[in-house]
Amino acid sequence: MNITNDRFKIVRAEHEGRVVFYLQGDIDEDAIFNQIANETGEVIINWKGVTSINSCGVRNWVNFIKTMSDRTIYYIECPPLIVKQMNMIPSFLGTATVYSVYVPYVCDNCDAEKLVLVTAEKFGSVEETIQCDQCQSPQMELDGHPKHYFTFGRAK
Ligand SMILES: [Zn+2]
Fold first, then answer.
1. What is the CATH number of domain 1-98?
2. How many angstroms separate the alpha carbon of residue 127 from the centre of ligand 1?
3. Could you give the CA distance from residue 64 to residue 79 in angstroms, rounded to a whole number?
4. Cα distance between residue 103 and residue 152, in whole Å
5. What's the pLDDT tens digit per position in 35-45?
């Protein structure tokens, strides 16, 4: 574990011989990613724990990921706030491949919210409506337009 500041940290872990970096907290002008560059070989970035990213943080990451263009990088478990950045700013993705993202759903009936993890082979065929766990309404809808949510997938 390497604490770069009190708002953001990167935790390195190994799963079945693959290295995963868990990004956690708020990414802003003070976020440092050098720890990731020091790793040799394939790199997996888990975005699940990122709670916010501001414009300085985006610039920070874009500059960093540019330096990693010769590496094999996967983004996994991207929350909606990261998917939004990938859709608006293609360089946020760099040469990385998106393996999985969280898709937000909101219930029409009780306003419950849910994030569903979707892997790359399903990006083109994501469910627009699912059943609500809270009230059992079948009208829990994808928050936004699926085509827009997966814009990043078509940019490559
Ligand atoms: Zn509901």
1. 3.30.750.24
2. 16
3. 20
4. 14
5. 999 998 899 99
